[in-house]
Amino acid sequence: MATTADIKNGLCIDFNNDLYTVVQFQHVKPGKGAAFVRTKLKNITTGKVIENTFNSGVKINPVRVERRPYQFLYKDEMGYNMMHMETFEQITVEEHLIEKPEFVRDGMEVEILFHAEKEMPLVVDLPPFIAMEITYTEPGLKGDTASSNALKPATTDTGATVMVPLFCDTGEKIKVDTRTGDYVERIKD
After folding, report:
1. What pLDDT, in 10s, does the model give residues 11-33?
2. What total number of domains does the chain contain?
């Protein structure tokens, strides 16, 4: 058991029978009354961020979590099969643990957050940016827009649809932000 004095960014706690990480915290000592800690907590399973205030000195239940490097091998009816990068141990992860499964590709290196005591995978973190190839998009015509930031849908080699600028064509490689699903830039060979 720990107290509110042990709260720091990134700490994982058991709160309301669910796992949360501390995104932001602030110790407040008002001139009148007891001190308290104002926090923003992110639910590990749903990703929802909530605000909560703890009275100073209240007991909290920290949970030990570990980030482990894995490589995606293949997908089957059981889920996504991953291999640990150091021990070569293989596990199967359910699709709901991956925030944007449409960006997962063969051989991709990911980090899996594990509940250390229960040895249970909690969430799969993809790399922040990945390179993808456009397999199909409508051709963009010059002078087709009134503004310079017009976008069109493009299908990538993983089957994901990404909005790209009009100058991107089929066969080009692009950089995509996996957290938002947004186009970042074209990759020149």
Report:
1. 999 998 899 999 999 999 988 88
2. 3
